[in-house]
Amino acid sequence: MTTKQRFEHILQWFAENMPSAESELRYSNPYELLVAVMLSAQCTDKRVNMVTPALFEAYPTVEGLAKASVEDVFARVSSVSYPRSKSAHLVEMAKRVTEVYGGRIPDNIDDLQTLQGVGRKTANVVCAVIWQQPTMAVDTHIFRVSERLGLTTNSRSPLQTEKQLVRYIPEAVIPKAHHWLLLHGRYVCQARKPKCDACGLSAYCRYYERMEK
Fold this sequence. Notes:
This protein is mainly α. It has twelve helices and no strands. The two termini are 18 Å apart.
């Protein structure tokens, strides 16, 4: 099976079996998604969704968050991972969005990455989810699943994984493919105990093929 054929089979399976894949983070606008994604770094979406309602009630706009004290934000997000640094990043991000971008969340990867605490993965998520741009955010789930399935080969970094994935995934499919791979890794192809017996992709999976030998 060629790499191109492997991609085609796997993408087709996802399209048929997971047609409505979307982010599990709760948000209602670009500002809320950006904040949620920043908080989700090395933290579960479930935990973030427990924190953000009260945070957004206190600071419903990016302009409001820009005027917040780091200590107050910290008190509201203290149950997420690395709350001290994330609180400072959120306030600084909001200040720059307000001062430089007129209160509008940037709609491109380059400008997003000028914001405090926003790296390539976060920028890719926002661009893909909000604006349906062909940007592939690679987290630990996608990094693992892509290598196991054989969509990537000997990838050593998230950026290498991103480049190998976007080479074969049609641009129109990339935003949804991000969620397909992420959710598959979160619930089926888990790190310690992948549920291979319950996986519909075993026929195309390089990891499963090795396990069977």
